[in-house]
Amino acid sequence: NKRDLYRAIIEAKAQQASQRMDALRPYAEAADDGVFFTRLAELILERYETDPEITRLLLYISLERHELSGYFFERVFSDFYRLVLDYIRRRIAAGAFRDVDPEIAARGAIGMIAYHGLVEQLFPGYLKKRSRQRVAREMASVFLRGVSAAG
After folding, report:
1. Which of the 8 DSSP states describes residue 76?
2. Are 102 and 88 in contact (CB under 8 A)?
3. Could you read off the pLDDT of 94-128 as tens digits, one per residue?
């Protein structure tokens, strides 16, 4: 049935998300802020470019308040979000980041990157095309200037 089909798709997407998170984890452990947030941005943008179907599924399930919307979030996004959140918490504790609300900061970092990917997916050609690497570097830089304890 449709519910089982959605659940199977969500599980497949969760496996892909887990692989992206595994690719990001070594950067989180290294505590190189520029590299971590640039790599985070590259992975999010790559997902928008290579897997547009997940955006359609996310929008449909969430906007229709489908019974699997919470399951979708938990299986596909929550571990990734927690990795970013924990990184920010550690960097605040180390004195590298200002004393900001780490949950808002994590949503802000992920959100600005996801917004770019979403706009490019929904409105192709609307934004001036730039390489994924350039967008990732610039977004990481903008975010880090906002949370940096230096200066």
Report:
1. I
2. yes
3. 999 999 999 999 999 999 999 999 999 889 888 88
Instruction: Say how far apart CA 45 and CA 52 lie, in whole Å.
Output: 11
Could you tell me the two tokens for 140? Answer: 């990481």
pLDDT at 151 over 70: no
| C-alpha torsion sign, points 71, 73, 79, 80 | positive
Distance from C-alpha of 109 to C-alpha of 85, rounded to nearest angstrom: 10
Helix (H/G/I), strand (E/B), else coil: 1: coil
DSSP letter at 125 equals T
Q: Which residue has the higher pLDDT, 121 or 16?
A: 121
User: What confidence tier does 35 reach under pLDDT thresholds 50, 70, 90?
Assistant: very high
Cα–Cα distance between 72 and 95 in angstroms, integer?
35
Q: Is 139 exposed, middle or buried (0-12, 13-18, 19+ CB in 10 A)?
A: buried
User: Which residue from 96, 90, 111 is spatially nearest to 41, judged by alpha carbons?
Assistant: 111
Contact 11, 3 (CB under 8 A): no
Q: Where are the alpha helices (DSSP H) in 31-122?
A: 33-50, 52-63, 69-72, 78-93, 102-122
How far apart, in whole angstroms, are the C-alpha atoms of residue 31 and residue 6?
37
